[in-house]
Structures are given as structure tokens and as C-alpha cells.
Design goal:
By secondary structure, the chain is an all-alpha fold. Helix content is about 55%, strand content about 0%. It is built from five helices and no strands. α1 packs antiparallel against α4. The longest helix is centred in the N-terminal third of the chain and has 36 residues.
């Protein structure tokens, strides 16, 4: 029998991160952008290398490895993207990354186009957040509104529903006037012609 599981009592318990959820979202989204930019650069280099290999017919990549030019965001653009990322709630971080990956896979952009694609995805997510927030406000307003049926509706007391009343006198009307009306079913309201005094 091993004593190792019993000796773990003096290990420090795992600590939770001291960063706020907003900081974690910001870092996650910016790391995703950097990773997709590196992948786009790699694909762009591979495509260019394949074209050169086809054109020359010879592969000299083993002979001299030229440094790959890397595209980096300008500080202003990075700050703008970080400001937009800071507005994203943690629950929308995963769907934003999934949507970004889908668009990158569909369009196969160059490295400098990745940041524009990322910005458009962030704008979509912010729009969706705004729409869902407005829908939530509306449902909250409807749920907090006082409930009332027709009894609370401001109907005039003199207005009566009389669907069968008409100005034309008939023989059956004289007969019906003396007999009590037949009882209605429970689902139907009782309609009566107001008696004039």
C-alpha cells in the first residue's frame, strides 16, 4: 500500500486566480488574436513557398532559411482592440472565439487582415449583447407590470355588447321578449340588451 496519497495533506491547496474575469477575458481574446495572426503568417509563408517551389522546380529551403517577416499590431490598434475586448462579458468569450475561428477558416485572411476580422467579430458580439440586454429589460418590465384581467380595464359602464340588437322589429323578437334567455355555456359571456327606462 502506497503512502503517497496520505502524505499530500501538507501541500498547499490550489489557489484561484487573483485576476478579475474581465482581465481573463481580455487576455484570452488577445491570445486568440495573436495565435490566429501567427497561423495566418505561417499559411501565407507556406503558400508563397509552394508557389516558389512550383515556379523554380527546386526546393532551396534547406540551404538558406530566410527570416519570416512578422506582422505586428500597432500600439494604437492594440489598445483599441483591448478596449473593445474589455466590454465583452465572460459568458460571451467562448462564442466570440468560436465565431472568430469560423470566419478565419472560411476567409483564410492574410496576417494584416486578421485584426479587422477580429474587430468585426467583437462588434457582432457587442451587438448581440446589446440585443439580449434589451430583450431582458423588456421581459423584466413585463414581469414587473401589475397583472390584471378585464376587471382592471377602464371600460365605460354604459357601453354594453349587444350583438343581436337591431332596429328592425320582427315577430320572433316579440316572442323572445317574454321568454327568459337560454343559459349560456361557461365559456361564453352573458350578453344583455340594456333596458331603457
Amino acid at each position: 500500500m502506497s503512502l503517497i496519497p496520505w502524505l499530500r495533506w501538507n501541500e498547499a491547496p490550489p489557489r484561484l486566480s487573483s485576476r478579475s474575469p474581465a482581465e481573463m477575458v481580455l487576455e484570452t481574446l488577445m491570445m486568440e488574436l495573436a495565435g490566429q495572426m501567427r497561423a495566418a503568417e505561417r499559411q501565407q509563408w507556406q503558400r508563397g513557398h509552394a508557389v516558389r517551389k512550383v515556379c523554380t522546380g527546386v526546393d532551396y529551403s534547406w540551404l538558406a532559411s530566410t527570416p519570416r517577416p512578422t506582422y505586428d499590431l500597432s500600439p494604437g490598434e492594440r489598445l483599441q482592440l483591448e478596449a473593445v475586448c474589455a466590454k465583452i462579458r465572460p459568458s460571451y468569450c467562448g462564442p466570440a472565439i468560436i465565431r472568430f475561428r469560423q470566419l478565419v477558416a472560411e476567409h483564410e485572411p492574410e496576417a494584416r487582415e486578421v485584426s479587422r476580422l477580429f474587430r468585426s467579430v467583437l462588434q457582432e458580439v457587442l451587438e448581440r449583447m446589446k440585443q439580449e440586454e434589451e430583450a431582458h429589460k423588456l421581459t423584466r418590465q413585463w414581469s414587473l407590470r401589475p397583472r390584471g384581467g378585464l376587471a382592471l380595464a377602464p371600460f365605460k359602464t354604459r357601453a354594453r355588447i349587444a350583438p343581436f340588437a337591431s332596429d328592425i322589429r320582427t315577430i320572433s323578437e316579440d316572442v323572445e321578449r317574454d321568454t327568459p334567455p337560454p343559459p349560456r355555456t361557461w365559456s361564453m359571456p352573458e350578453f344583455r340588451v340594456p333596458k331603457e327606462d
